Amino acid sequence: MKLLIVSTAPLIYKDGSIYAYSPYVNELVILKKFSDEIIFCCPVWNEDNGLLISEIPFKIPFHFKLVDSNLKTFKSIVKSLFSSVYNCVVLFKAMKNADHIHLRCPGNVGLLGCFVQILFPNKIKSAKYAGNWDPKSKQPWTYKIQKYILNNTFLTRNIQVLVYGNWERQSKNIKSFFTATYSENEKETSIKADFKEQQQFVFVGSLTSGKNPMYALQLVEGLLKKGNKIVLNIYGEGPERVHLEKYIKDNKLEKFVFFKGNQSKEIIKKAYQESHFVILPSKSEGWPKVVAEGMFWGCVPIATKVSCVPFMIDNGKRGILLDMDINKDLLQIHELINDEKNFTAKSKLACDWSQNYTTDLFESEIKKLLIK
Fold first, then answer.
1. Does position 71 have pLDDT exceeding 60, yes or no?
2. pLDDT by residue (tens digit) across 166-205?
3. How far apart are CA 214 and CA 14, in angstroms?
């Protein structure tokens, strides 16, 4: 079976090898197990541009290369109109040569892919919608179009669309799904030590306004002012780091907040194991892997009420849902820090829930998706 992957995520040609975003590569390895060959239809980068990348560990027989574009300036908008026509032609050729079409949405390429796949009603298709599927959420109109086309059984046929969460009034195209990082063999009981002496917080993610690391920093500052013994370790890089560093210096938080940069899976795993809380005040998510990963190791999650996060946290039974009101959020976190029994109960519930979603289960579900 020849599997075509249509994605905005680029392939990066570097030093004679082909790379991609590391978590994406982990999924590709699983997809490859159940296909004879994988071909790609996506943009190309010649540099990693600060992205955390890994080498793709299998041969790519063919790459239908798309023109990368953005809508940041008037010139780029005009250029994107011409490149979109070219990309649609390339997408058509790629889909014509595939046995199974796999769309990765949302994104610029995902949007074009949604339109072009309509021309192939008899091809077997699947799609992973990695963003927020909540029909009531505020999203760009391009995202709404992708969701409409994928959900519409007349426009999109022979497809299973993997979405995060369970939502009302969805068509037969839609399948509730998940993602995973750790295997069955990695399961272990996580006991959080030294809770009374110091509370370890961890933030993992790109340092961008969308992930809202500044709010995490402000929460930690507020908890320190309330007399809590807090340490925040920040893993990741991004344009917000400069502003965060200035805030830390201006507010004398150097002894409590530490930047760790981009790190390997094993180092991140150890950070979760040593932390009491994982914090993600993100503005938008699909299935936030950071939350699920932290919960796997018994971290109590502190996260915003976006996408399927309320389901993951069981509306607060397994963690804390942020109201994005600094005083309200500080109060509920402070209360939990001062109630070790409640913290331990939430930690266990978080761990028990997350350890249901392993890479073993993920792999078995992907097999069902690709092999009929």
1. no
2. 898 899 999 999 999 999 999 988 788 889 899 999 999 9
3. 34
181-186 long-range Cβ contacts below 8 angstroms, 24+ apart = 181/23, 181/26, 181/265, 181/289, 181/292, 181/293, 181/296, 181/359, 182/269, 182/293, 182/296, 182/355, 182/358, 182/359, 183/358, 183/359, 183/360, 184/358, 184/360, 186/358
Nearest Cα neighbor of 271 from 178, 212, 205 is: 205
What pLDDT does 39 receive?
97
**What residues are paired with 300 via a beta bridge?**
277
Cα distance between the two ends of the chain: 11
Q: Which of 116, 163, 177, 105 is nearest to 135 (CA)?
A: 163
Residues in the chain: 372
Question: Are the CB atoms for 248 and 207 separated by under 8 Å?
Answer: no
- 10 Å CB burial of residue 40 (0-12, 13-18, 19+) is buried
Nearest to 260 by CA among 174, 185, 347, 200: 200
| Residue 101: its H or E element | strand 100-105
What phi and psi, each to the nearest 5 degrees, are found at residue 350? -60, -45
- DSSP calls for 212-247: -HHHHHHHHHHHHHTT--EEEEEE---TTHHHHHHH
Exposure on the CB side of residue 349, measured as CA atoms within 13 A: 17
Main-chain dihedrals φ then ψ at residue 191, nearest 5 degrees: -110, 120
Burial class of residue 26, CB neighbours in 10 A (0-12, 13-18, 19+): middle
Q: Cα torsion at 258, 353, 366, 20 (round to 10°)?
A: 0
Provide the b/e sequence for 329-368 (b: ≥16 CB within 10 Å): bbeebbebbeeeeebeebbbbbbebbbebbbeebbeebee
Judge if pTM exceeds 0.90.
no
Helix (H, G, I), strand (E, B) or coil at 282: coil
Could you give the CA distance from residue 174 to residue 149 in angstroms, rounded to a whole number? Answer: 12
